[in-house]
Amino acid sequence: MVTEGELGGVERARLLMSEGATPVAAVNGFARSALASYGRLRPLAAALRRGPRVSGNPAPIKTRTTLMSSSIDYTSQKIEAREVSNDERMQMLPKHFGRDMLTVECAIYAFMRKLAREYTGGYWTFLEPSNGGFYIAPECESTFQICVDTNGFEGTMSADAAGITACLFALSHLSFQVRNASIANHYHQLRDFALGHAEARAILGAID
């Protein structure tokens, strides 16, 4: 396991962000159009929310327990998630996001701080759903109080669900700022996985 900021470039990005730079500008040295301020979150774009509804069973995740939500309609497609081993961790962000890997990682941490005021950093677990998606979540047993100021959502989530929520916000936000089709694709893959999560109702309520 590594802590947030241990991967190359992220510590520098965080420093720049503390001086007022937005996530994209901080990571890419102002080479791209800056992200709209993440100080004010917006609901996820309707165009992204209209992605294909592919639901599945809650993912069995190592060291985590997920339960089936009877309010979700499940299809025969089962989406499972595996926890990435320590040996594979350094390959995951380049594999899924290429040259925009640090932009994505930095944006996820920024949204997590905005959504969960009590979050102050820590270890994160990397996970790969079987539909080709990817997400990260804080490695802890604590719950987080998630607040979204633009839609009034307030609720308590596990670390896993909070990580999924932060990733969905980051991927949606970046899909309009970065020319990388894999970012929008990963949003849809992660949302499809989230539909079968034990905390699907809370996750979907937060991103609505």
Sequence stretches where pLDDT stays below 50 over 5 or more residues: 5-10, 23-43, 45-75
CATH superfamily: Antirestriction protein
- Any idea how many domains? 1
The biggest beta sheet reads: 3 strands, antiparallel
Helix/sheet category? alpha+beta
The strand count comes to: 5
Our count of helices gives: 8
- Secondary-structure element series: HHHEHHEEEEHHH
How does this structure look, described?
The chain has 208 residues and is an alpha+beta fold. The termini are far apart. The protein has helices at 10-18, 23-28, 46-49, 89-97, 101-115, 159-175, 181-194, 200-207, and strands at residues 81-83, 124-129, 135-138, 143-148, 153-158. The chain is globular, with a radius of gyration of 16 Å.
SSE blueprint:
Elements: H1 10-18, H2 23-28, H3 46-49, E1 81-83, H4 89-97, H5 101-115, E2 124-129, E3 135-138, E4 143-148, E5 153-158, H6 159-175, H7 181-194, H8 200-207
Antiparallel strand pairs: 1-2, 2-3, 4-5
Helix pairs in contact: 4-5, 5-6, 6-7, 6-8
